[in-house]
Design a protein that fits this description.
Blueprint (H helix, E strand, L loop, with lengths): L26 H26 L35 H9 L5 H7 L4 H13 L25 E3 L9 H8 L3 H21 L7 H13 L9 E6 L2 E4 L2 H4 L3 H7 L3 H17 L6
Antiparallel strand pairs: 1-2, 2-3
Helix pairs in contact: 4-6, 4-7, 5-10, 6-10, 7-10
């Protein structure tokens, strides 16, 4: 590894009615008795019918329907895509419309943009430093330490070497990049397949890369580095020494740049409805 490779009931009683004297034996009495019999018969008939007919059942309570899940992922727009090998100019124009940051323009000037971005994403997910695809983003200055030349704390000023690259990334709105990505995703899937993935879905490579970077421990104090050989430093802390190369490199970007980049990457994953680890 080179120097720069370190990388949530009311009841009522009925009121008695007035006492009615028994009627005298007359036709009226028989009429009254007949009418009473009819009334009683009618009441009994209604009572029987009411028993015989099934009661109207109250409808069962319907459980509340959960609200429809709204997807953040934009729909692919109907555009004609060039071939993968002829996609540089096409992609360059799309990305340039999202940001004019100088560091981004430098990266866009390199050939094989989609293949390079695909390779870099896969390498990050595998824990490797994407030195070759992102060579133009490498800082011009080198790591410096305080103390003697053999070992010492990383000089915090070293972190600023990566400010421009972090600025370039966050200069693009994740929502805009998500739309661009779904539009050109078939090209990324093709490049991903060309790297040896027979059933390619480049989403999985993005998730793996973000998860790998997110697993980098938070180190807010400059780590102590030990010179192993000319141009090559290693961490004194055994835990940091055991990290993947890309995580060591991520540490060299400094805590502020790491937080900015991770927040941006997680927002991009949200816009694409990607489930992170």
């Amino acid at each position: 590894m080179t120097l720069d490779d370190l990388p949530l009931e009311h009841s009522s009683h009925p009121t008695p009615g007035p006492t009615v004297p028994p009627p005298s034996s007359s036709p009226v009495r028989w009429i009254v008795l007949g009418a009473a019999a009819l009334i009683v018969g009618a009441v009994l008939t209604l009572w029987w019918l009411s028993r015989a007919q099934p009661g109207t059942a109250n409808p069962a309570a319907t459980p509340p329907t959960e609200g429809a899940v709204v997807s953040n992922r934009p729909k692919s727009q109907n555009i004609d895509l060039p071939s993968l090998d002829d996609s540089d100019g096409f992609l360059r124009a799309l990305v340039s419309a999202l940001s004019q940051h100088p560091a981004l323009a430098k990266l866009l000037a390199t050939p094989g943009l989609i293949r390079g971005a695909t390779l870099a994403t896969v390498q990050i997910g595998d824990g490797k430093t994407p030195a070759s695809p992102f060579a133009v983003l490498r800082p011009a200055t080198h790591v410096t330490i305080s103390g003697n030349t053999a070992s010492g704390k990383l000089d915090p000023s070293t972190y600023s070497r990566w400010n421009g690259d972090a600025d370039a990334l966050v200069s693009i709105r994740p929502k805009d990049l998500a739309q661009l990505y779904v539009n050109v995703k078939p090209l990324f899937d093709q490049a991903y397949r060309d790297l040896g993935h027979p059933n390619p879905d480049f989403d999985e490579a993005i998730v793996k890369a973000i998860d790998t970077l997110a697993e980098t421990p938070q180190v807010d104090q400059p780590p102590v580095l030990i010179l192993k050989q000319p141009g090559f430093y290693e961490h004194e802390d055994q835990t940091l020494r055991a990290l993947l190369p890309v995580q060591k490199q991520f540490l060299l970007m400094g805590p502020d740049n790491r937080r900015r980049i991770l927040a941006w990457l997680k927002e991009l994953a949200t816009q694409l409805d990607l489930k992170l680890g």
